[in-house]
Amino acid sequence: MSIVCGLPILECVYCLGCARWVWQKCLYNAGHESENWGLATAEEFEPVPRLCRLLLSVYEVDLQNPHWAPPGGYGINPDWVVLRKNHEETGGCATPYLIYLDHDNSDIVLAIRGLDLAKECDYAVLLDNKLGQTKFDGGYVHNGLLKSAKWIFDTECEVLTDLVQMNPDYKLTIAGHSLGAGVASLMVVYAIQNLDRLGNIERKRIRCFAMAPARCMSLNLAVRYSDVINSVVLQDDFLPRTTTALEDVFKSLLCLPCLLCLMCLKDTCTLEEKMLRDPRRLYAPGRLYHIVERKPFRIGRFPPVVRTAVPVDGRFEHIVLSCNAISDHAIIWIERESQRAFDLMLEKDQIMGIPKKQRMEREEFIAREHSEEYKAALQRAVALDIPHAYSSSSYGTFQEMEGGETSGTSSRGISPLSFKKIKEHWDNFIDRLFDVDESGRLVFKKPIS
After folding, report:
1. Please, which pLDDT band fits residue 150 given cuts at 50, 70 and 90?
2. Using a CB cutoff of 8 Å and minimum separation of 24, what contacts does 342-351 make?
3. Angle at 94 between CA 89 and CA 97, to 5 degrees
4. Fold held by 30-388
5. How many angstroms separate the CA atoms of 34 and 252, rounded?
6. What is the DSSP letter of 231?
7. Distance of CA 424 to the CA centre of its chain
8. pLDDT score of 189
9. Please, where are the H alpha helices in 77-209?
10. Does the UniProt entry include the keyword Repeat (predicted)?
11. C-alpha–C-alpha distance, residues 357 and 37, integer Å
12. pLDDT tier, 29 (very low <50, low <70, confident <90, very high otherwise)
């Protein structure tokens, strides 16, 4: 009898929970995540549309006679393509990619394309992962994507080393889309762990642009490598928000609405503190660039705005129920909207009439701003008790940490900046209490009469 009486109460609780979830999802839109982020500038966003076109060119069979070129073409010189590899040449270990020597922009680019729905080997890479299966550099990463990244690096290491040494003023850029974006991100992390194999290239010469990336690394790694990894997300794209293991994305190809609804319900009922403190949970990597070009309860597309930040909490945690969640993942739409956004940035700069000298000063200011934002993100990660959150390397003008600081930070979760403050306070304390005598020993200061 008591069980029967409890059923109406359980039914009411269930209905209230569903009503709360529907209400939150109706009010929630893709602009919420980045509404407090800063606006990107033309200087930092310039590579994005160019690299999107290069990623599109990987799909071409013959670059001399392209069939799928966007308006204005790919903007590349086929003679500068160093090598290309298709599925047969990669043996299913990675998606097709090419290496392009971009003399116009002083850039060595390795472009990795996304998932091919007709190739089982791409699914094998995607499904090769279990929660918490692979530890790497103090965090967790996607096992299949890491194996693919290592294979590409080991295969093309000699070619990349020769190009880096032959062009000492060029940057090394690794770009990818979707599945390829996850591979590119982990390849950069792996390359930084093996800089000696790339001719001891400086860390600041390496960078990654991940277009619509899969969630491939734990939060501490995503923040720590935000100085070299840049992720680009178009509005409602579902993949950077898919918090399940990536094998569920494969299932979502058959029944995406069902999976999205179930995951939305799960995310709504899970406390954010619990999600952040799960060391096995994977995230979109690096610094995030969010292209927003639609507004809630309005029809049509608006002039795109690009917002950027290195967020810790609120890092694309919730799936957006939108009819554009799948189309926003397409590289052709990312290229189109990123080019529109970049053109608007240039138009604004021309209206303002910024001279060349001020542009150079603004680039230096952006670099300083990014470094400060990077430090703040690391401190925020430590404050939130993110597992293994510490800084293992310098960023821009950051001072190098001593070995003791690194080991202490990794073991106790203390911010590297706090060690310097403690040392300064201790030195001031010693100066106030002691003097140095003629023999060089510390003696107490004499009281002033």
Report:
1. very high
2. 342/42, 342/45, 342/46, 342/48, 342/49, 344/303, 344/304, 345/40, 345/41, 345/42, 345/45, 345/306, 346/42, 349/42
3. 70
4. Rossmann fold (3.40.50)
5. 26
6. E
7. 35
8. 96
9. 87-90, 120-127, 143-166, 179-193
10. no
11. 27
12. low
Return the closest-CA partner of residue 315 out of 446, 435, 409, 221: 221
Residue given tokens 């800084």 in the structure block:
391
pTM reported for the whole predicted model = 0.78
Does the pLDDT of residue 60 top 80, yes or no? yes
Q: 253 pairs with which residues across the strands?
A: none
DSSP label of 202: -
Residue for token pair 């590289």:
331
Is-contact 213 199, C-beta < 8 A?
Answer: no
179-193 and 143-166 helices, crossing angle to 10°? 60
- On whether the CB atoms of residues 54 and 109 are closer than 8 A, the answer is yes
Q: How far apart are CA 334 and CA 215, in angstroms?
A: 18
Residue 261 — very low, low, confident or very high, per pLDDT cuts 50/70/90? low
Q: What stretch of H or E contains 343?
A: helix 331-352
Q: Where are the domains of the chain?
A: 30-388
The answer to whether 44 and 308 have CB atoms below 8 angstroms apart is yes
Buried/exposed code over 422-438 (b: 16+ C-beta within 10 A; e: otherwise): eeeeeeeeeeeeeeeee
Q: Please write the tens of the pLDDT for every residue from 191-240.
A: 999 999 999 999 999 999 999 999 999 999 999 999 999 999 999 898 89
pLDDT tier at 279, thresholds 50, 70, 90: confident
Q: Cα–Cα distance between 64 and 67 in angstroms, integer?
A: 10
How far is the C-alpha of 162 from the C-alpha of 167, rounded, in Å?
A: 8
